[in-house]
Design brief:
With 281 residues, this protein is mainly alpha-helical. The chain is 76% helix and 1% strand. α4 runs parallel beside α8. The longest helix has 29 residues.
């Protein structure tokens, strides 16, 4: 039986997470980022408001975000495939290394100091944002992606960092791919597939890793909150095709600018959080 307090909580919790899903879906389709870059901070601050143990808040936000990326990535890949925005050859070449990086990143996330990770993400993200938003679109690190074992460093890094931060691979893979000559529309679509490769092992790892953790929110399976997952995913799936359609109506220049602005805001927020944590310690 619902108490008055529980009913009041649900009256603002349900629309908040539903709105989060709407925004996450647009970004997933538009930028190939899986939506986790929106979901993680919302869940983190929500868990803080609800008084969840500070020792598990970030892990719970990251694990739940990764779970939402599974259906979101599938929907996004299908939408981009319909517009010839997915590169199956590139996906097959990078997917095993991305998967391996995700497994390693999930393991490291249970040990890592998130203030350090946040700082690294913020610095790298800001550099990528400046390159995407202000840099010359003709800048290249190479005419094509590296081949053989030399190429494995990029997807391993993408998988590991994305799993640690609870985000799809697009935040890192889209700038990396464009620097090696991949058209941005195709980079965004293919990055949606990397989100699935990252999120499946990472979600399982976070669920197992937090199985006996104290102080978790109600309705949690390890570090995955099922209630949050069920409230976010339906609206996310509604808006993913809208984001994908919008991505393919923008010119490469405009899409690069949009990605740069988005990544700059995200990186700035991460750096601010790191500074606040340092000042508070």
């Amino acid at each position: 039986m619902f108490t008055a307090e529980t009913t009041a909580l649900l009256l603002w919790l349900v629309p908040l997470l539903a709105a989060t899903g709407l925004v996450a879906g647009v970004l997933a389709g538009l930028l190939g980022v899986g939506g986790g870059i929106v979901v993680v901070p919302v869940l983190y601050h929500l868990f803080s408001y609800l008084g969840i143990d500070p020792g598990v808040r970030m892990h719970l936000a990251v694990g739940t975000s990764l779970a939402t990326i599974i259906p979101t990535s599938i929907r996004s890949v299908r939408a981009h495939m319909q517009r010839d925005g997915f590169d199956p050859e590139l996906f097959r070449a990078w997917a095993p290394a991305v998967f391996g990086g995700s497994v390693a990143g999930t393991w490291l996330a249970t040990l890592a100091d998130f203030s350090v990770l946040t700082s690294i993400f913020g610095v790298v993200g800001m550099l990528m944002a400046l390159q995407m938003g202000l840099g010359n679109p003709d800048w290249r690190l190479g005419a094509r992606l590296p081949r053989g074992r030399a190429s494995l460093g990029f997807p391993v890094m993408i998988g590991s960092l994305s799993a640690m931060m609870g985000i799809g691979g697009g935040t890192f893979s889209v700038p990396a791919l464009t620097l090696f000559g991949t058209p941005i529309h195709r980079a965004v679509g293919t990055s949606s597939g990397f989100g699935l490769v990252i999120s499946v092992p990472a979600t399982i790892g976070f669920a197992i890793g937090g199985w006996n953790a104290p102080g978790l929110a109600d309705f949690s399976v390890g570090y995955v909150n099922v209630l949050g997952l069920l409230l976010i995913v339906p609206t996310t799936l509604l808006t993913v095709p809208l984001g994908a359609r919008l991505a393919h109506t923008l010119s490469q220049h405009r899409l690069r600018q949009a990605f740069g602005i988005f990544l700059g805001i995200t990186a700035g927020r991460m750096l601010w959080d790191a500074v606040q944590a340092a000042l508070g310690s």
